[in-house]
C-alpha cells in the first residue's frame, strides 16, 4: 500500500519540474531579447560612428570659413537676383523651323530609260504597282516607291491621257461639272471621271479652271496698285526671313485685294519675272506674259 506521504512527495516533485521548465523558457526568452537589443544598439553605434567623422569635418570647415561665407553669400545672392531679373526680362528664344521640320528628301528626276522600263513593265503587269516597283528598281537603278510609279503612270505616261490644248467640248463640260459639284476636293473624283471630250487628270482640270475658266480670276494686265500691293505683301514675309512656298503664295493671293482675284501661280509668276529686285527685268511685260495659260489656248 502507498502511503499519503509518498503521494504528496511525487506531486510536489512534478510541480517543481514544471516551474523549472518555465523558468528556463523565460531565461531563454530574456537572453534572446537582450541579444536582439544589443545587435540593434551595435548597428546604431556603427552608423553613428560612420557619420561622425563627416559631420566633424564639416563642422570644422564651417567654423573656419564662417567669416568668408557670410561675405560670399551676399555677393552670390545679388548675382542670382540680377541673373533672374535678366532671365525674366529677356524673351524666350524662338524655335527655329529647321529644328522642328524634318529634312526633305531629295527629288530625283525621272530619266527616259526609267520611263521606257515602266511602260514595258506596265504592259506585262497592268496596274500591279507593287510588283512593277520591285522589278523596276534593280541593283544599279534608282529604287522608286510604288506610289511614285503609280503617280508617274497615271499623270504622265498613260497613253490614254489627253495632252495639249483643251477643246471647246472639254471646257464646256468642265464648267458644267464645277457648277454641279463645286471645286473643294472634287478634281480627282467626279470631275475627272465625268469630263467629256478627253481624258484629263484632276490636276489638269484644276489648273484649267483656276487659270483660264474661273470668271472670278482677273486675267488682264496688272495695274500699278496691284504691283505695289504684291511688293508689300512679299516684302513683309521676306523681312521676317520666311521662304515663300506654294502655301505662302496662296495666302498672298488671298490677302491681295487690289485689281480683283489672282491665283497663287499668277502672283508667283508676276513677282519672279517682273517685280523681284534680284531679277533685272523691266515691269513692261510682252503680250500674253501675264496670262496664266500654261501653253493652252483661250477660246
From TrEMBL:
GO biological process: snRNA transcription by RNA polymerase II; snRNA transcription by RNA polymerase III
Keyword presence, Nucleus: yes
Start and end residues of each HTH myb-type domain: 102-157, 158-217, 219-279
Family annotation (InterPro entries): Homeodomain-like_sf (IPR009057), Myb-like_DNA-bd (IPR051575), Myb_dom (IPR017930), SANT/Myb (IPR001005)
Biased composition (Low complexity): 54-76
Domain (Myb-like) ranges: 102-157, 158-213, 214-275
Alphabetized SMART domains for the sequence: SANT (SM00717)
Entry keywords, A to Z: DNA-binding, Nucleus, Transcription, Transcription regulation
Region (Disordered): 1-108
Keyword Transcription: yes
Basic residues composition-biased segments: 24-48
Name listed for the protein in its UniProt record: Uncharacterized protein
Provenance organism: Triparma retinervis
Amino acid at each position: 500500500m502507498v502511503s499519503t506521504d509518498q503521494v504528496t512527495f511525487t506531486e510536489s516533485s512534478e510541480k517543481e519540474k514544471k516551474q523549472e521548465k518555465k523558468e528556463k523558457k523565460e531565461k531563454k526568452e530574456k537572453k534572446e531579447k537582450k541579444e536582439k537589443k544589443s545587435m540593434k544598439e551595435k548597428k546604431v553605434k556603427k552608423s553613428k560612428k560612420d557619420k561622425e567623422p563627416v559631420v566633424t569635418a564639416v563642422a570644422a570647415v564651417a567654423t573656419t570659413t564662417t567669416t568668408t561665407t557670410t561675405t560670399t553669400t551676399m555677393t552670390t545672392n545679388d548675382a542670382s537676383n540680377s541673373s533672374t531679373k535678366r532671365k525674366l526680362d529677356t524673351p524666350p528664344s524662338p524655335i527655329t523651323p529647321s529644328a522642328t521640320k524634318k529634312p526633305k528628301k531629295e527629288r530625283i528626276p525621272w530619266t527616259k530609260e526609267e520611263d521606257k522600263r515602266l511602260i514595258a513593265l506596265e504592259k506585262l503587269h497592268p496596274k500591279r504597282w507593287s510588283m512593277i516597283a520591285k522589278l523596276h528598281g534593280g541593283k544599279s537603278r534608282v529604287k522608286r516607291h510604288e506610289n511614285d510609279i503609280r503617280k508617274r503612270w497615271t499623270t504622265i505616261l498613260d497613253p490614254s491621257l489627253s495632252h495639249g490644248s483643251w477643246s471647246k467640248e472639254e471646257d464646256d463640260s468642265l464648267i458644267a461639272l464645277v457648277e454641279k459639284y463645286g471645286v473643294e476636293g472634287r478634281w480627282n473624283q467626279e470631275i475627272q471621271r465625268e469630263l467629256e471630250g478627253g481624258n484629263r487628270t484632276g490636276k489638269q482640270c484644276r489648273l484649267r479652271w483656276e487659270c483660264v475658266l474661273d470668271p472670278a480670276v482677273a486675267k488682264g494686265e496688272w495695274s500699278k496698285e496691284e504691283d505695289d500691293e504684291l511688293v508689300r505683301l512679299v516684302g513683309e514675309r521676306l523681312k521676317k526671313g520666311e521662304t515663300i512656298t506654294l502655301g505662302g503664295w496662296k495666302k498672298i493671293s488671298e490677302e491681295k485685294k487690289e485689281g480683283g482675284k489672282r491665283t497663287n501661280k499668277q502672283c508667283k509668276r508676276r513677282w519672279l519675272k517682273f517685280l523681284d529686285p534680284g531679277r533685272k527685268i523691266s515691269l513692261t511685260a510682252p503680250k500674253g506674259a501675264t496670262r496664266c495659260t500654261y501653253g493652252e489656248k483661250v477660246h
